[in-house]
Design a protein that fits this description.
The protein is globular and about 80 Å long. It is an alpha+beta fold.
Length: 385
């Protein structure tokens, strides 16, 4: 019985196989998925960036005397055109120190680029090539991204032009320090789409082909972890670089501290997470918003505040002077305020230095000289004269 049943199955296989699709039966139209359509549309706007610079190598014997040789060095990265008139976006570290920048398009054209502006901390740079009618890929928005949604990275890893990788948005709001550690951003996008050296500066896209981020960093030795600058923050940086050539500083007039369990217990705070206001400068945007010392900012822009960097990142993302809604705990009450950050007035840094630590300085013959120390101030207590 078993042998006969097996025989009937074997005899039926040819008839069954007749109904299965044969290899290669699906044509290009059937295989053109939404992902393929997005890649075809955006790829012409993604460029390869080659930055040439001169690197000085000290002489092995006389390097202590400043002797050495210079040799040309080349770094490769990615970028994308955001304006048909030739405006290109990339990472600042891709073009840092470059004496010559070349942008290569998908069609093979090589165009020399001028650096319009760059900011190392924001890790963004704006280039200009002398061409018009170029394919462009404008910045989208990142505020409505969903964890787990599909994303696409396009770039030039290891010099392999227009490489496409896909994955999902793994997380938002990741904390990533700047290269020099002077600032911490808490809004980076994390993705498992493969991002490798050379991908820096290329776009991170959603399935509709909108630029939601700019690929910028990887964790050395880790796989499946890459970071991108969110498009919402990139907007303000790029606008400043186009208008001024540098990122304009912003000031709110509030000094903040991150609340941790130790601070919460020591200061008997009712809230265990947030940003504590320790100083509000008179006539500052924070003072005009009604913020007061000992207030605790618990939410900003609709997101919970876990550290002071959450507040500063939200203010840096908004345009200068634009209000950012925040919730503040004031004793047992919760109040809402509209925080703003503005371009600081001239001389503000010197004024804040004198008010905060009691130190006045002035430039004299190429040096910075102390010309005032307030009695009893922090500077006085440290022995400065």
């Amino acid at each position: 019985m078993k042998q006969r049943a097996a025989l009937r199955v074997v005899l039926a296989l040819p008839a069954l196989l007749a109904f299965l699709p044969t290899a290669g039966s699906a044509g290009p139209a059937e295989r053109r998925t939404p992902l393929v359509a997005v890649v075809e549309r955006v790829s012409p706007a993604v460029v390869n960036i080659s930055a040439e610079s001169m690197v000085r190598e000290p002489d092995p014997f006389f390097g202590l005397f400043g002797m050495g040789t210079e040799r040309p060095a080349q770094s490769l990265g990615s970028g994308f055109i955001i304006d048909r008139g030739g405006i290109v976006i990339t990472n600042a570290h891709v073009v840092e120190g470059a004496s010559r920048i070349t942008v290569t398009l998908l069609d093979g054209r090589e165009l020399e680029a001028d650096l319009l502006g760059a900011d190392r901390d924001a890790d963004l740079a704006v280039l200009k090539v002398k061409a018009t009618g170029l394919p462009a890929l404008p910045l989208g928005k990142s505020a409505d991204l969903m964890i787990g949604e599909s994303v696409i990275a396009v770039g030039n890893p290891f010099g392999l032009s227009n490489t496409v990788t896909t994955g999902v948005l793994s997380a938002v709001g990741r904390t990533v320090p700047t290269a020099r550690g002077e600032r911490v951003f808490t809004d980076f996008l994390q993705t498992d789409a493969s991002i490798n050296p050379g991908n820096s500066g290329g776009p991170l896209l959603n399935v509709e082909g909108e630029v939601v981020g700019i690929n910028t960093a990887i964790i050395s030795g880790a796989t499946g972890i890459g970071f991108a600058i969110p498009a919402d923050r990139a907007h303000r940086v790029i606008e400043d670089l186009l208008r001024f050539g540098t990122l304009q500083p912003l000031w709110s007039g509030a000094r903040l501290l991150t609340i941790d369990p130790e601070l919460a217990q020591r200061s008997d705070l009712a809230v265990r997470r947030g940003a504590l206001v320790v100083k509000v400068y008179p006539d500052s945007p924070a003072a005009q918003a009604g913020l007061a010392e000992k207030d605790i900012i618990v939410s900003v822009g609709g997101h919970a505040v876990a550290a002071r960097e959450d507040v500063t990142t939200a203010l840096y993302t908004a345009a200068a002077g634009d209000p950012v809604q925040a919730e503040v705990r004031r004793g047992a009450k919760t109040v809402k305020v509209a925080l703003r950050a503005v371009h600081p007035p001239s001389g503000l840094g010197l004024d804040v230095l004198e008010r905060s630590v009691g130190l006045g300085v002035a430039g004299k013959r190429g040096s910075l000289v102390i010309d005032k120390v307030a009695d009893g101030s922090a500077a006085d207590q440290r022995g400065l004269r």
